[in-house]
Amino acid sequence: MLTNKRQLLGLGLGLGAGLIASNAFAQGVAAEAPRGRKAIPHRKATTTVLFKAPKDKFINGVATSPQGLWIIEQKETGGANSTYHYKDGRPLEPASDLRETAWLMDDKGGVKKTVITEGRNTSGFAVGNNSLWVGCNSAGHNGVVQTSMDSKTVSHRQVPFGPPEDGGGIHGLDWHDGKLWIAALRLRAAVRIDPVTWNTELMLPFPTGFDRFHGCAYDASNDTMLVITGNNSTSYATGTPGIARLDAKTGNLVEVIDFAPNTCDPHGLTFHQGKLISCDAGLHPGWPLWDSPYAGAIFQINIA
To answer: What is the pTM assigned to this prediction?
Structure first.
């Protein structure tokens, strides 16, 4: 009962923050601010490719650690692979091995360590407490898989406030100050969870005006949460990625960062050695496979 009460309290706090955030941005990104409120400031971002991921791997998660930068692959299986097609019309073949691999990389893209996880359709990744935290986005295998550094599954737990067997998909994870942040699709919110007790401490609903959300990263320099945003698009040419910056205490939208033309397509997100890092998966819903000219790139985001 105590755990449930704490979860309900966290939900109430998060919903309160969500009302503030929604009211502050109810008219969408491009609309004028409501009377008496300041307009949401916009800035531009460019990208710098650091290195390419292992050949022909869809990378949909990046995570920082003292040992270096981690990346993790995504595989489309269970029929979902047929929704993705190459430019010549061929569907993506299902993976024969469902397990998904994470790699610890050096600054030049060399592999320092390999860990095999029970992640499925991984879309979100964090490293903390000597574990890999893998966000799954696959029907029947959603949730967060905690994996040890020797490739053993420690736990598999669900996003709170939903069915105990399936709390919905995940599009981003981040580790900050001993806590795990989850970009939860069903809740349309960034949720802060105690990774030991799995109690929910705070929920920041995503702002309105965006079609899709992806990776998330806590910015300790100003206590804000960054969440990758995007539009419903059919190709790299029609995509408009961005970042929404939320106050990590109130959930208020405080800034929108728009990606300049001809930049990488962001998926995962993390701060590593003071730099904002993302990955271009090469696999984007609605797009042909490898449609982005930067597919497979691990890159730095430069905010002007």
So the answer is: 0.87
Which helix (H) or strand (E) covers residue 8, if one does?
Answer: helix 2-24
User: For residue 197, which of 169, 182, 178, 183 has the smallest C-alpha distance?
Assistant: 178
Whose CA is closest to 143, among 175, 168, 162?
168
Residues 220 and 228 sit within 8 Å (Cβ to Cβ): no
pLDDT in tens, the chain (304 residues): 334 444 444 444 444 444 333 333 332 333 344 455 679 999 999 999 999 999 999 999 999 999 999 999 999 877 788 889 999 999 999 888 999 999 999 999 999 999 999 999 999 999 999 999 999 998 889 999 999 999 999 999 999 999 999 999 999 999 999 999 999 999 999 999 999 999 999 999 999 999 999 999 999 999 999 999 999 999 999 999 999 999 999 999 999 999 999 999 999 999 999 999 999 999 999 999 999 999 999 999 999 9
Q: What is the dihedral of CA 132, 137, 142, 148, to 10 degrees?
A: -10
Counts of helices then strands in the chain (DSSP H, E): 1, 20
Quote the Cα angle for 199-203-205, to 5°: 155
Dmax over Cα atoms in the chain, in whole Å?
Answer: 57
Query: Which domains does the chain show, CATH number per domain?
Result: 2-303 (2.120.10)
C-alpha 269/C-alpha 124 separation (Å) is 8
Which residue, 74, 44, 49, 41, is CA-closest to 275?
Answer: 49
